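INPUT
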Amino acid sequence: MAKNKTQQYIRTLGIDKKIVANIDNGIIVLDQDLKIYHFNKWLELHTGIKEYEILDKKIDDIFNGINSKTLKRKIKTALRIQTPTFYTASTSKYLIPIQINQFHNSSFEYMQQDVSIIPFDEEKGLVALILTDQTIMANTNALLESNIQTINKLNSELLKERDTIDKKVLVIKFDKTFRIIDISQALLRLLNYEKEELLDKNFLFHEKYHMTEKTQMELVQAMSELKVLEFQESTLSAHGQRICFKSTLIPEYSAEGIHIGFLIFRENITDSKRLEKSQEKILASSRSAAMGEMVSMIAHQWRQPLSLINTIMATLKIKKELEKLDEKDINEAFSKIQTTTAYLSDTIDDFRDYFKPNKESFEVNILSLFDNSIFFLKETMHQNNIEYKINATQNISIDTYKNELLQSIINIIRNSIDAFIFSDVEILNKQINVNIQKQESHISITITDNAGGIQEDVLQRVFEPYFSTKSKNGTGLGLHMCHTIITGHLKGNILMTSKDDVTTTLIELPFTILKGIK
Amino acid sequence: MQTLDLTEDEKDVLQELMNVAYGNATAVVAEMLDAFASLSIPNIKVIQTNELLATFSELKSESYFFSTQAFNGEFKGESAFFINQTSADNLAKHLELDSSEDLDDAILELTNVLTSTLTTKLSQEMNTEVSFSLPSLSKIPLQEIEKSPTFEHYSQVIVIDTDLNFQDQQIHGKIFILTKDESIQWLKTKLNSILELLV
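OUTPUT
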């Protein structure tokens, strides 16, 4: 009867008692009035309260925060159904407040507990509460919960962004076989297509009639090499409207890095293309206007030498009729005519050189540049009794496009001269003054005239194209071109102000064209 | 797949056993909540898991609390308890609960009482014992239940479903006792031995 012996031996060991005493759980025995009958060692160690101190006392008097109504109900139910009832850590957190002394358990102040209420003695109405530490699990759950929240937040942000992209960004997506798989709402709206009309279509086939052969070749090449390509294209909307795009082809890869297709991001440049065209038109008209200006200035320059030639011819003629013409006279006259015609020819060369736009910038001396401009205008100024003065603090040179600047200065001074000529009132002491100053980061040129000033409403519009107060005589492009040249090509600023009878034009230019004004 | 349908006789015996178990469960729940409760006559059937999921999806229309509790022994499985938001709110009012954690706890308690009383009574009749795991509230939204791995382990399930009604309090719940193929086989054997005793 070895089995019986073994059983007897085991009984003497008191296994149940020893194991229960050392089990890694809290055990409390309570009656239906919550009076404590047993409080195990584990609980003694965790709470620092000895069993003998609390026997026969009520558990809700010992520990704070116990809902006695709920606990009583659970005990009663367990006794009634003769199976356990429970508290779970996930909903009830803990029953007995036990402070956590571990570092990494930062989410909770108290040990999170599962509690099983086991019917123990039906007659006496006793139950055993078994506490299990679930803090690690609860921590994991809390971490998971907060991560889920983060993911949900990120996800909703992502969805929002995707929605914005769909509404705002012009993008078309196709797979490796060029089958269109998605198109943003923004692009569909622009092209007046429904998504269904374009989905599953072959992108290359759909677009090929609107692309140049060169673009097509480049596109196919970039696609086969999986390269990013920037290109310009134009396509027709469903309504037959031509739309120009600046586009970027980007190969698309899956999260695993496998090539799955392509994206084309498009930027609608139809409007700027249109603007570019109208700018070109303005430029062309301003060129012809400048040409006209040049011809009139050449004519001006030529008048005096031509009349000189005329006078020489007339003198020769009179002398011949009076039979006083000798060899010396003829030679002198020829020599004078030769010099004068050479001057006429030089004048044309000068004009041609100055009105040719520079391709490269180089060192320009501002004072001599003004001398050159005045050369073309001094005759007119002299005829109209306009006094011209130039004042410079020092001899300054800057790196810029010479002819463009020259053209602008002639234009501005020409404007001042015209203001004197077309003035309704007689102006005494007509003056055009130029002041050149070197500033810290740039040079400033001020050109002032006392030709009567400009009205505020006119002043606001002087740089607009085709705006002119000179009715018949003006193209309305002169100052517009000055503005375009100075702010665009020469990287400077131009400002026109007017006070009383004086108009001031301020030009600021960088020392070198590469750096611009800081 | 082997079909484990219950015969009419087996169903009758199980129905009888369940009626006893339900009577017991009703009394306990009524006592616990201090209110008059009634349970509809349990509806017993063996169905495929996908049919069960279809049944669950009918419940999707409303916001539900969904809790489960596993039980173990010769007769083992899991119970699934559904209670809608309105009923849960009424339960909270009735029990004078003031936090959502307390309500969760009360729902778990209800799940436990129903699962325990139903399965304990049943296993007692069949001379076996069961032990219970802690019930837990599923955080999974109802729409996602199909993806829940819980149901992947079941091919066929025996469904014992009943409505729990507290007439005065407007509290309605629905509980499913789900068991796996193995337990269905065990149950059939047990039911047949009871049948033999009756003959």
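end of record. The domain at 2-140 of chain A is CATH 3.30.450.20 (Beta-Lactamase).
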